[in-house]
Amino acid sequence: MEDESWTMVQKNGNQFVVNDQPFYVNGFNTYWLMVFAVDESTRGKVTELFKQASSVGLTVCRTWAFNDGQWHALQKKPAVYDENVFKALDFVVSEAKRFKIRLILSLTNNWDAYGGKPQYVKWGKEAGLNVTDDDDFFSHPTLKSYYKSHVKTLLNRVNTITNVIYKDDPTIFAWELINEARCPSDPSGNKLQEWIEEMAVCVKTIDPKHLVEIGVEGYYGPSTPNKVKYNPNDYAQHEGTDFIRNHQVLGVDFASVHVYADAWISQSEADAYIAFTKSWMQSHIDDAERYLKMPVIFSEFGLSTKDPGYNTSFRNNLMSTVYNTLLDSARKGGSGGGSLVWQLFPDGTEYMDDGYALILSKSPSTSDIISRHSTRLSLFNSLCKWKCHWGCKKKHHIDELNYHDEL
């Protein structure tokens, strides 16, 4: 029998809901799942990963639904697809459902890993277009048509394993327009803003059922000069992104923010990492409540083991900071919708590690922190029907949560 609780994630004001119940997210990133699913020899790692993630209560995974013109390319050339790789993505979606994990699927990359923006520009050059800068991806009509064609193909794909069309599949939590969009060639933010406006509507026109987010890192830009002090560094405000303005676009349902204190702030200021993480997150939660009236997901956060002086307890401290900031928001029915750690790996994939890989079996203390956070969020998720807004069982449960905090 079909699982009745497996329905689309929706949004009610500044909260995610499933079947009118609150849905706070504890999740993770593993970007390479589709590519691993192509080969029989590595496909099992996808299953292994979802199994491990679900054992600590993780409910959402963010992964790439693109691979443009690279090894194991999904899109070999504009609108030319490798069916084998598409079947691998079908497998990822069907396995996610099996383990009750929902997916945020990203549609392309700002960076050249897996093709992304630079590959689209390369295709444009090969087609004789007058494109000189990678940021032409955001403005050239032909390149925009390539991207829209990919969106249309993906959203209308019929999964060969489940027979469900992607745009009808509740396993998919949301579509992400582009990972870490930046457009430094236009620091005013207008070029990227117009692209977001066009593409959010493009996705929603094909698929009005699913939630849509942009995929930006959360930098404050020219429209909010009073906010740039929250940015991690000076260059952030010149990257052509503009957090509040970007998210006031028709068709964008929730905000995305990345949190990388160790990559953004000078290594010599490690003491400042925790303070920055708190203020960066709180500022975006406040904005999402006050100006955007939508949930916000901290869709990438982590700490690299390659940082000078790295130790596990510092990583655990950083993760607890992220989780506690979100719990504080959830207690108030605020906009903090959840977080996705960068990044979860199964055993035997260490050779892919960028420094941020988290292997649960090798990190028991971190695994415990994740598990405890999942348990707390599941309490919130089971509190009551959303319309009650914490009215009925709130007191008892919140007291219980506060008690757990002291353990």
Furnish the topology, listing elements before pairings.
Layout: E1 10-12, E2 15-18, E3 21-22, E4 25-29, H1 33-38, H2 40-55, E5 60-64, E6 75-77, E7 80-81, H3 83-98, E8 102-106, H4 116-126, H5 141-155, E9 172-176, H6 190-206, E10 211-213, H7 243-246, E11 255-259, H8 261-264, H9 272-292, E12 296-301, H10 312-331, E13 336-342, H11 364-381, H12 394-405
Parallel strand pairs: 4-5, 4-13, 5-8, 8-9, 9-10, 11-12, 12-13
Antiparallel strand pairs: 1-2, 2-3, 6-7
Helix pairs in contact: 2-3, 4-5, 5-6, 9-10, 10-11
Textual characterization of the structure:
This protein has a single domain, classed as Glycosidases (TIM Barrel). It is globular, with a radius of gyration of 20 Å. α2 runs parallel beside α3 and α4 crosses α5. By secondary structure, the chain is α/β, with parallel strands linked by helices. 47% of the residues are buried. The strands form three sheets. It has an eight-stranded parallel β-sheet.
CATH topology call: TIM Barrel
* % residues in beta strands: 5-15%
Query: Helix and strand string, N-terminal first?
Result: EEEEHHEEEHEHHEHEHEHHEHEHH
CATH superfamily: Glycosidases
Contiguous runs where pLDDT drops below 50 for at least 5 residues: 403-407
In helices, the fraction of residues equals: 25-40%
Characterize the main sheet. Answer: 8 strands, parallel
How does the overall form come out from the CA principal axes?
Answer: globular
Q: Tally the structural domains.
A: 1
Q: What is the topology, as strand order, of the major beta sheet?
A: 10-9-8-5-4-13-12-11
Q: What is the average per-residue confidence, as pLDDT, rounded to a whole number?
A: 93
Kindly state the number of beta strands.
13
